[in-house]
Amino acid sequence: MSTKEMLVDGKGKKIYSTEDPEIVLVHYTDVASAYGGIKTASIKDKGKCNNAISAFAFEAMTAAGIPNHFISLENEREQLCRKVTMIPLQIIVRNRLAGTTAAMLGLKNGAEISNTVFELRYNCRSLGNPMINEHHAVALGIVTYEEVGEILDLAKRTNEVLKDTFHKAGIELVDFKMECGKDAEGHIIIADEISPDNCRLWDEKSGEILDKDRFRHDMSDVCISYRTIMERLSKSVKL
Question: Between the N and C ends of the chain, which has fewer C-beta atoms within 10 Å?
Fold first, then answer.
């Protein structure tokens, strides 16, 4: 499908309009960034891996009846998606406590928990994407109480589907970030991406980190770990 203009010029993704006003083309790049863009680098074939991994995840969600923006893979680096109006809200789903939340609570990274933790963050980079609750979200005019309940329900359902999808590939879904938008009919659907860039993914047997934390913490073989996830999913999940 031919493109018209760039709508989003991001580091990890660029989004273009198409001849269909309700469909966009998402192009995944090899650029990795961390700490709010302070640290950046190019990782060979990262875009190809993230494009495929995200497609596997969205296809699994579609099969489970979870509404999302994914339509189809266009090529190795690009996919067609439904155009949405993004809701400025990040939903962080944690099956273990890791990263900033573990540090905030004084726990070791990857602490096991008996429940699933759902965090809301106001998607506003100038404010540092602060953690908020549903009352803040409603006060900011981001969502209604009914909508935030719908989003959290989608997050719960998505977590179960993604845990199972990655488990089949021998990978533990430690946590992930999810974003939603509204389609042309005003329905809330999951958008953005599901990839090692916004998920913590650990090898189930060895505990080896396979996600962007390898880049954040200057660990080796970042491109190999991304490729490992893609190849394992390709063997265990059919698009």
Answer: C
